[in-house]
Amino acid sequence: MWIADKWQDFELIDCGDGEKLERWNRQILVRPEPQAIWKSAKRHPGWSNPDARYSRSSSGGGNWDKRSVPSQWTVRYNDLTFLVKPMNFKHTGLFPEQAVNWEFAAEEIKHAGRNIQVLNLFAYTGGVTVACAAAGAAVCHVDAARGMVSWARENAKASGLEKAPIRWIVDDCAKFVEREIRRGHRYDALILDPPSYGRGPSGEIWKIEDGLYDLLKLCAGVLSDRPLFVILNSYTTGLAPAVLGYLLNLLVASCFGGRTTWDELGLPVTESGFYLPCGATGRWTAT
Predict the structure, then answer these.
(1) Residue 174 phi/psi, 5° resolution?
(2) Rg of the chain's alpha carbons, rounded to an integer?
């Protein structure tokens, strides 16, 4: 398991009974966590008196009880700064376990010895975009949701990277890649974090188990002659990390050689000393 254990402004305090207790800077949140199927004694006072709690509704969805939490605030990770905002569907705009991928990408870029062009697809609020730009890469950030791209720009600005070479694109990711291939544009690094389920621009249904192979095959076509790395993320229940590794071996390593690794992502739990699994990642590197 790849553990994101270098946070100062985030802490997974405890989890259990389908919930997790977190500290985001000074704000204490309780949010649903379906992986936490075990019981917790819930001794920490934050359980009974959080700054905000997200509760699911029996009819679907849910809502925040924001007792004293601001509408937004910042958290820092090393030299990076991100805006946190409690959103619908329990989200905060940041997945802290992804810090291990931010560090991986940044180190690859810093040691490449050349200028690196990064394509970040399904890029959300731009955690890895900001990390890559801070490491010196030029980044193309693509997401179909205009609000998420605007938020990502705010994160770049908060990190002092408003003038960094980042292209902000609001578009369907697959359609954008198709056009980039026709234009002859190529990238040295590729990052994908596709959803488990969604609808395309014409209403077509996307299911990751049905579409991921074709999507990665398409995206591999936008890689340069000397690609540096590929990161493939998934939060789909039941999709094992080894599946991501298998796809990367088939569609990237078979063309460029290199090395493929894969694992779960995890966060340390302060109260128990154990680790909460938080999705899966596959990585391909040229060396």
Answers:
(1) -65, -40
(2) 19
Q: How far is CA 282 from the centre of its chain?
A: 13
For position 206, what pLDDT does the model report?
75
Token pair for 9: 């402004």
Whole-number Å distance between alpha carbons of 175 and 231: 20
**Beta strand 138-143 pairing with 166-170:** parallel
Among 72, 62, 117, which Cα is nearest to 92's? 72
> How many other C-beta atoms are found inside a 10 Å radius of the C-beta of residue 77?
23
Handedness of CA 199, 201, 202, 206 (dihedral sign): negative
Q: For the CA atoms of 13, 17, 19, 20, what is the dihedral angle to 10 degrees? A: 10
Half-sphere exposure of 200 (CA within 13 A, CB side): 12
Residue 134 has pLDDT above 80, yes or no: yes
Q: How many CB atoms lie within 10 A of CB 92?
A: 23
Across residues 227-237, what is the average pLDDT?
96
DSSP letter string, 128-186: HHHHHHHTT-EEEEEES-HHHHHHHHHHHHHTT-TTSSEEEEES-HHHHHHHHHHHT--
pLDDT digits 0-9 by tens, 236-253: 988 999 999 999 999 999
Give burial (CB, 10 Å; 0-12/13-18/19+) of 32. middle
Residue found under tokens 């590929």: 230
Whether the predicted model's global pTM rises above the 0.90 cut: yes
Query: Rounded CA gap, 230 and 284, in Å?
Result: 5
